[in-house]
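Quick one: structure tokens for this chain, please?
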Amino acid sequence: MVDVRNNKRFRSEPGSTLSCYALRLKPGQEIRECLLNYVKTKKLGAPFVLSCVGSVTQATLRLANASIDTPNEIIEVKGRHEIVSLVGTLADEGHLHASLSDKDGNVIGGHVMGNMKVFTTAEVVIGNCDTFSFTREIDDETGFEELVVREK
């Protein structure tokens, strides 16, 4: 059984290349910032979100029309929402996408820009690929910082 209250590290099996970390964020904490600080503190080289459940009071999301020639459409999500999905990598400044559900079950999602504040809780499990390192570097084709995976 995983004890998320103590934010302890759990290895899946001896010799495994995956380590897991569990933490619980509290009301008012900003999710993206907390996760990025956590992986820096733990010195994780290839971190990603395995699971996240909880709720938020707000979030800033970039919608799916981003390109080099098109300005990013950014929206401010206000009000209480359930986190129905949070996925992505946490290397460098991270690349997270979220789906949030309102009181009527309507879902909105996009690239997490920040300002994603916990309402009651956010229970997060982070995985780390022990044999890889993740970085984000400018990709000439897309013009964006993209994931680069290297073996250790």
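The longest strand covers residues 107-129.
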